[in-house]
From TrEMBL:
Residues 46-297 form the G-protein coupled receptors family 1 profile domain. PROSITE patterns: G_PROTEIN_RECEP_F1_1, G_PROTEIN_RECEP_F1_2. It is found in: Cell membrane. Belongs to the G-protein coupled receptor 1 family. Keywords: Cell membrane, G-protein coupled receptor, Membrane, Receptor, Transducer, Transmembrane, Transmembrane helix. The lineage of its organism: Eukaryota, Metazoa, Chordata, Craniata, Vertebrata. This is Trace amine-associated receptor 13c-like. InterPro entries: GPCR_Rhodpsn, GPCR_Rhodpsn_7TM, TAAR. One of its GO terms (molecular function) is trace-amine receptor activity. The keyword Cell membrane applies. CDD domains: 7tmA_TAARs. It is a multi-pass membrane protein. One of its GO terms (cellular component) is plasma membrane. The chain crosses the membrane at residues 30-54, 66-89, 101-123, 193-216, 246-270, 282-304. It comes from Fundulus heteroclitus (Killifish).
Length: 327
């Protein structure tokens, strides 16, 4: 039978070198396990629906939806990463030092890709609203795919280089067995904060401020011309309304993203050890953003609701279902 001291250790067989477990009431531990497990499953399920929808239905293959696909892939991976945080609830890491390093690199990469995709979405809406005549020629499906692919590859390479010491010497900075830490020097940390959060968020805010200034001015101009619009003019106005609606919907996605992520990064800056507990509210809010994005699509996008219905009823298995008109 284990002694009281052994019961508090991550690895009782390593009595002198094992880390101690975080003491949590059984009820509190159960709540955190259930909450994280629910968020994880829901995040993976909802984002898989987005991924299947955009990949399967040809009518959804647009530059904007390619960016939403990239965001859904990163959000889906967040759902899988939450399962690692469930392991860490008691403060112990049981998966080894190499998996610890891989986990942190994936976490850094996915976070950076999510923020970078938000920047690309902001740029997409900026061009569509502010330069509508140039949008079809400047923003194409192939260019969107290229931008997304390059960004994913650069993000993976960048963080592998930034955290290379942790990959070369896994577990080097752990003070005891059962701990999962990565080391990032001061200069690297400041550069990563600037390149992965402060600069992208600043750019997102500036672009969307400009977008909504133009949206408001266009809305007022359209209202004054609606009564006298001819048939051809009505088509143009409808097209403009469609672009404006897309800008507003994606603006909601961006605002929700900032609300969910900013508290986490602020808490990380304030924390002396640059770490935020997996049981903290800001941490749960940070990961819950990946669950919210598909819910926003379901609320505002008719094509997503229709595609979900087709997926859940297995109608996508029918021949030529990929050619169904979604809008």
């Amino acid at each position: 039978m284990k002694t009281a001291e052994e019961a508090e250790l991550c690895f009782p067989q390593l009595l002198n070198s094992s880390c101690k477990k975080t003491r949590l009431l059984p009820s509190v531990s159960l709540v955190f396990h259930l909450t994280l497990s629910s968020i994880s499953l829901l995040t993976v399920f909802l984002n898989l629906l987005v991924i299947i929808s955009i990949c399967h239905f040809k009518k959804l293959h647009s530059p904007t939806n390619i960016l939403l696909l990239s965001l859904a892939v990163s959000d889906c991976m967040v759902g899988f990463l939450i399962s690692f945080q469930i392991v860490l609830i008691d403060g112990c890491w049981y998966l080894g030092d190499i998996m610890c390093a891989v986990y942190f690199i994936l976490d850094y990469v996915i976070t950076t890709v999510s923020i970078g995709t938000m920047v690309l979405i902001s740029v997409d809406r900026y061009i569509a609203i502010c330069y509508p005549l140039h949008y079809p020629s400047k923003v194409t499906e192939e260019r969107a795919k290229m931008c997304v692919s390059v960004f994913w590859m650069c993000s993976i390479l960048y963080h592998c280089v930034l955290l290379r010491d942790n990959l070369q010497h896994p577990g080097r900075y752990n003070s005891c067995s059962g701990e999962c830490l990565v080391f990032l020097d001061y200069i690297g940390g400041v550069f990563d904060l600037l390149s992965s959060f402060i600069c992208p968020v600043t750019l997102i805010i500036l672009l969307y401020v400009r977008v909504f200034v133009v949206v408001v001015s266009q809305a007022r101009a359209m209202q004054s011309r609606v009564a006298a619009a001819a048939l051809q003019g009505s088509v143009k106005i409808t097209a403009k309304k469609s672009e404006m609606k897309a800008a507003i919907i994606l603006g909601v996605v961006v605002v929700v993203f900032l609300i969910c992520t900013c508290p986490y990064f602020c808490a990380t800056l304030i924390a002396e050890d640059a770490a935020v507990s997996s049981s903290s509210v800001v941490f749960l809010l940070f990961y819950f953003n990946s669950t919210l994005n598909p819910l926003i699509y379901a609320l505002f996008y008719p094509w997503f609701r229709k595609s979900v219905k087709l997926i859940l009823t297995l109608q996508i298995l029918k021949p030529e279902s990929c050619d169904i008109v979604m809008v």
